[in-house]
TrEMBL record:
Residues 38-214 form the Helicase ATP-binding domain. One of its GO terms (biological process) is rRNA processing. It is found in: Nucleus, Nucleolus. The lineage of its organism: Eukaryota, Fungi, Dikarya, Ascomycota, Saccharomycotina. A motif (Q motif) lies at residues 7-35. This is ATP-dependent RNA helicase DBP8. It comes from Zygosaccharomyces bailii (strain CLIB 213 / ATCC 58445 / CBS 680 / BCRC 21525 / NBRC 1098 / NCYC 1416 / NRRL Y-2227). One of its GO terms (cellular component) is cytosol.
Length: 433
């Protein structure tokens, strides 16, 4: 791996204009996955790239695509599909920045944005389309050949966070998207993920006649580097009914009172309750979940990145790929059922060699999930000693309980959750996002 990362972008075959742009962005040394994948993609090979979060996967596929595009910059050249709107926005920003000196046209096609405006953008034949599968599938099915006809001439398809995209959740929309692209023999297909699952590996056994063999690269042994050594994993055994009080005490204790943190929950309702409760307790907090309008989701991320809010309460829409380098603490307020989700969540901290903490709230029902996670990361969690029962009861239980009760009353008054039902009805009419 050290040999790979020792090469520079010129040696990898990137265009001079792109190297100049990377230098201006202070990106001069390729990471291991970039060194391995960029030259092989430039040779025309399909690629599966596996590396932990924060390893530079986006440039590993963007650099060769942009290099190839600059040789013949016309029409729709590449499509990047990714599971969440926020990740799509981040990738679109990176493509736009990398191609800023070359008049690149990048179109972001995600749910929650103006669908007519998106159709008009697609009609102008952007060079790169960064999309969530549901919204692109909607355009393919409903927006007409003038809008999506150019897709049949694209040269690249990228599945970013491929392990998520290849699940049943996205199956129908993904099939629609791929059906509008050139057959696999006439395009390059690039899959990148932090978790190389069996579904991803199955593609290794599907060679395409007339194309060079698929290139697969995984950083070291993925199972052994599931989480970085700079990440400290701890747990707090806790009764379900006082979780909010423990969270408040943890986030305001001496060690973390000035730290940036992401608190992961499993449900949107829990995210909203916690945001309102902590806000009432004068914690600088924002949230990110699927029931928020897209503009609010975007604003929340901007506030968190700018440190206007130091705490982000999020569902797993924030667990994948988002580059928020300043996060010092991840709290698993709810334990995920899939150990790989724990890995993605924890990957929001301890990035690029920095230290970080991941603390899990464990109730009696979570024991089997924790055992599965410890088996997956090949590491035992240690008990956190920063919050104690007596301190929680004495200092904050009453005021946190009061704040939660007032939050629940306000949510009931506002009919929180109605928007979700309205969107569900829309999706049944074909407005999937």
């Amino acid at each position: 791996m050290s040999d790979l990362s020792a090469r520079n972008f010129k040696a990898l075959g990137c265009s001079k204009w792109l190297i100049d742009t990377l230098n201006a962005m202070k990106i001069t040394q390729p990471t291991a996955i970039q060194s391995a994948c960029i030259p092989e993609i430039l040779r025309g090979r399909d690629c599966i790239g596996g590396a932990k979060t924060g390893s530079g996967k986006t440039i590993a596929f963007a650099a060769p695509m942009l290099t190839k595009w600059s040789e013949d910059p016309c029409g729709m050249f590449g499509v990047v599909l990714t599971p969440t709107r926020e990740l799509a926005m981040q990738i679109a920003e990176q493509f736009t920045a990398l191609g800023s000196n070359m008049n690149i046209r990048v179109s972001l096609v995600v749910g929650g944005e103006n669908i007519v405006q998106q159709a008009l953008e697609l009609q102008r034949k952007p060079h790169f389309i960064i999309a969530t599968p549901g919204r692109l599938a909607h355009h393919i099915l409903h927006s007409g050949d003038d809008t999506i006809g150019g897709l049949m001439r694209t040269k690249f398809l990228v599945l970013d966070e491929a392990d998520s995209l290849l699940t049943s959740t996205f199956a129908r929309d993904l099939a629609t998207c791929i059906g509008a692209l050139p057959p696999k023999g006439k395009r390059q297909t690039l899959l990148f993920t932090a978790t190389v699952t069996d579904q991803v590996r199955m593609l290794e056994n599907a060679p395409c006649e007339g194309k060079p063999p698929l290139f697969t690269y995984e950083v070291a042994s993925m199972d052994q580097v599931a989480i970085p050594s700079s990440l400290k994993t701890e747990y707090i055994l806790i009764p379900e009914y006082v979780k909010e009080a423990y969270l408040y005490q943890l986030l305001t204790c001496e060690e973390y009172e000035n730290s940036t943190a992401i608190v992961f929950v499993n449900r949107t309702m829990a995210a909203e309750i916690l945001r309102r409760t902590l806000q009432a307790l004068e914690v600088r907090v924002t949230s990110l979940h699927s029931q928020m309008p897209q503009q609010e989701r975007t604003n929340s991320l901007h506030r968190f990145r700018a440190n206007a809010a130091r705490i982000l309460i999020a569902t797993d829409v924030a667990s994948r790929g988002l580059d928020i380098p300043s996060v010092q603490l991840v709290v698993n307020y709810d334990i995920p059922s899939d150990p790989d989700v724990f890995i993605h969540r924890s990957g929001r901290t301890a990035r690029a060699g920095r230290r970080g903490d991941a603390i899990s709230f464990i109730t009696q029902r979570d024991i089997s999930r924790i055992e599965a996670i410890e088996g997956r990361i090949n590491k035992k969690m240690v008990e956190c000693d920063k919050v104690h029962d007596t301190a929680v009861i004495r200092k904050c239980l009453h005021k946190v309980t009061t704040a939660k009760r007032e939050s629940l009353m306000a949510m009931e008054k506002e009919n929180f959750g109605e928007r979700k039902m309205q969107r569900k009805k829309k999706s049944q009419k074909g407005y999937r996002s």
